[in-house]
């Protein structure tokens, strides 16, 4: 070992999900939106004065923050914007989780939570979901250094009723509770109104799913101004200028087009319903989805076998080789055509499976 | 104090430099390039298929990494890309500076170094520059947890000869030495060739200055593959997808246009020479600049007075109210017209100053 190696931060290298890029593939593996962003986004990029790129962007990201505040009926000092919700969550972990007591989150949830804890040396303790993948709210009534919950959860797609969420927040007023609502627009009610009642609640959302902009990297957090200021203080201490000019302009434009946003979501929900029925007919079952994906298991064929078979046909879904969920596939809701291709292939495959 | 406040990370809120946005202002305060990015950048944005924004970008940023590797005659595994050199440096600090011994850097240098140390709880110890703002290389021959040096330095614009830099690296083979070369393209020789000789050297550069793309947020680091892998491991543990699709495409296009890059730099160097002569005639002096700015002090009028007078005329330069440098102005080299306006105003102001 070279002497300088001993001071390198040890992390378990997180392996990002596969991003295949084949012609005619059906890409249902990373919960992207199958439809393009709002039409105004293309126009904004085409009309952009590229000369302005020589100048630093606005460090306060005012244009986009104001547009989000307007959309959600908040004040601008209640909104924080970052480079995707991963950036927002990472900043929130670094800002709020500095207790010697462990941070709590479910055993089955977004796989980044333990990664951020390990990176920033935050102690944590996972709480088991019940046998139906539901949160056991009583498990969060114990001393802790903070709580993070994804609702709807990933990769289960299950939405926990707001009463369950509020019960957890109400029992944990001494710590920050982060609610990761990446998928909230596809079903369920947001906990956003609760930020007026609980000053320790931070609600995090993203442009990557319901706004079709995973490629632009925009996420945001909403909470009381004191929380938002604390996050901005940390952000300004890492990198004052995180959002580039294209992301700020395109993001603001996307928020303005409310009709497109709602239509896009309804279209995906409709395709989700169709897919649920078709897959049920083929012997699949899944927790009720409130997201843009299904978490499906088959009554005969192991998930891993189906995953491999799909992959060979350039149909990409996500498989997690992890305890309790290793017989499930996470299948993003794509276009109607994507889902027809998936169902047709699975029909043939299941019929011929011995 | 609310109970949850005690776990919020305490940082001295870094205040980003002012970003005025007035018509007809002369903006010489944040070392931006006065000329637009390479013409191909505009074309890339106009031609971009906005439908692709629904998909996550390539987490490995291969297109841009490969283009930089090609430009610098490196292998791709020797290049790390991030959201501006601030992001790259912050990741480097978090990755490499994990020793109980203090990190060393000059007392007068880029103001973000102590901010990152405070944020990540890295001990540090500043080493005084000599009375001419030069590095005293012997000060770095002592036990430490790593070294970071800006060359050319900011805000002095002074370039330290490569022999000085190499001497420091050679005396510190047990720790990582980070060389922040944000301004290297405007003068002086890069330490890049030394990465083949010293596996503990990381060279950091940016698109914000010589490539006219501060608004796009692109920075990069070059070093041995083990260092680059360690940084990518940490990056993937924070946010796998940091660079959005527009930044990757536009960045790669900018690197390809070598002629534009060189012409842009030569134009700024020419204007710098003109400005140096004009300001000298007015009673200013400055360390020899190898950057796209001057660090100027006047033989009669206090810097703060000049700063305020310029500001009232919508000519923005940077003033640091800090020990040893509080009688200096950092003046970015703008267009020839910008500098003529500056000089004309100063001429009148100085003539009438009592």
How large, in whole angstroms, is the Cα Rg of chain A?
21 Å
How many domains, in number, for the residues of chain A?
2
Number of helices of chain A: 10
Query: What is the CATH topology of the largest domain in chain A?
Result: Aspartate Aminotransferase, domain 2
Gap from first CA to last CA of chain A: 52 Å
- Biggest interface and its residues per chain? A-B, 85 and 85 residues
Count of β-strands of chain A: 13
Portion in strands of chain A: 5-15%
Subunit structure (chains A, B): Homodimer.
Cofactor (chains A, B): pyridoxal 5'-phosphate
Protein name (chains A, B): Histidinol-phosphate aminotransferase
EC number (chains A, B): 2.6.1.9
Could you characterize what this model shows?
- 2 copies of one chain form a homodimer.
- By secondary structure, chain A is α/β, with parallel strands linked by helices.
- The first copy, chain A, has 2 domains: 18-36 and 259-352, Aspartate Aminotransferase, domain 1; 39-256, Aspartate Aminotransferase, domain 2 (3-Layer(aba) Sandwich), CATH 3.40.640.
- Chain A is 36% helix and 14% strand.
- Chain A has 10 helices and 13 strands.
- The first copy, chain A, has helices spanning 39-47, 62-72, 84-96, 112-119, 162-170, 225-238, 245-256, 258-281, 303-312, 336-352, and strands spanning 26-27, 79-82, 103-106, 124-127, 146-150, 177-180, 201-206, 219-222, 284-285, 293-298, 315-316, 318-319, 329-332.
- In chain A, the strands form 3 sheets. A 7-stranded mixed beta sheet of chain A has the order 2-8-7-6-5-3-4, sandwiched between helices. In chain A, strands 9-10-13-12 form a 4-stranded antiparallel beta sheet, covered by helices on one side. A two-stranded parallel ribbon of chain A has the order 1-11.
- In chain A, helix 4 links the parallel strand 3 and strand 4 (124-127).
- The longest helix of chain A is centred in the C-terminal third of the chain and has 24 residues, at 258-281.
- The N and C termini of chain A lie far apart (52 Å).
- The model of chain A has no long low-confidence stretch (mean pLDDT 96).
- Chains A and B meet through helix 1, helix 3, helix 4, helix 6 and helix 7 of A and helix 1, helix 3, helix 4, helix 6 and helix 7 of B.
């Amino acid at each position: 070992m070279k002497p300088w190696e001993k001071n390198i931060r040890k992390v378990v290298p997180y392996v990002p999900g596969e991003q295949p890029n084949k012609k005619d593939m059906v890409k249902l593996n990373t919960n992207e939106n199958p439809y393009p962003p709002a039409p105004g986004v293309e126009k904004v990029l085409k009309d952009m004065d590229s000369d302005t790129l020589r100048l630093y962007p606005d460090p306060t990201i005012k244009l986009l923050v104001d547009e989000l505040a307007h959309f959600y009926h908040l004040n601008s000092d209640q909104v924080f914007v970052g480079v995707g919700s991963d950036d927002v969550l990472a900043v929130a972990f670094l800002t709020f989780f500095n207790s010697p007591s462990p941070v709590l989150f479910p055993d089955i949830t977004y796989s980044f939570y333990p990664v951020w804890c390990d990176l920033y040396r935050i102690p944590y303790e996972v709480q088991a979901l019940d046998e139906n993948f539901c949160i056991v709210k009583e498990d969060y009534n114990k001393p802790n250094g903070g709580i993070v919950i994804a609702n709807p959860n990933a990769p289960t797609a299950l939405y926990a009723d707001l009463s369950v969420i509020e019960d957890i927040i109400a029992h944990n007023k001494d710590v920050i509770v982060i609610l990761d609502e990446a998928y909230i627009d596809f079903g369920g009610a947001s906990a956003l109104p609760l930020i007026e009642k609980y000053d320790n609640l931070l609600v995090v959302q993203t442009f990557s799913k319901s706004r079709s902009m995973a490629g632009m990297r925009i996420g945001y957090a909403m909470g009381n101004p004191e929380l938002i200021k604390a996050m901005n203080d940390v952000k300004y201490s890492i990198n004052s200028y995180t959002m580039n000019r294209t992301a700020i302009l395109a993001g603001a434009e996307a928020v303005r087009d409310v009709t497109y946003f709602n239509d896009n979501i309804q279209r995906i929900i409709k395709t989700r319903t169709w897919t649920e029925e078709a897959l049920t007919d083929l012997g699949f079952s899944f927790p009720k989805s409130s997201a843009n994906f299904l978490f499906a298991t088959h009554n005969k064929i192991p998930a891993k076998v189906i995953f491999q078979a799909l992959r060979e046909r350039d149909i990409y879904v996500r498989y997690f080789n992890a305890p309790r969920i290793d017989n499930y596939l996470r299948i993003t809701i794509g276009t109607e055509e994507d889902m027809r291709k998936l169902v047709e292939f699975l029909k043939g495959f299941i019929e011929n499976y011995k």
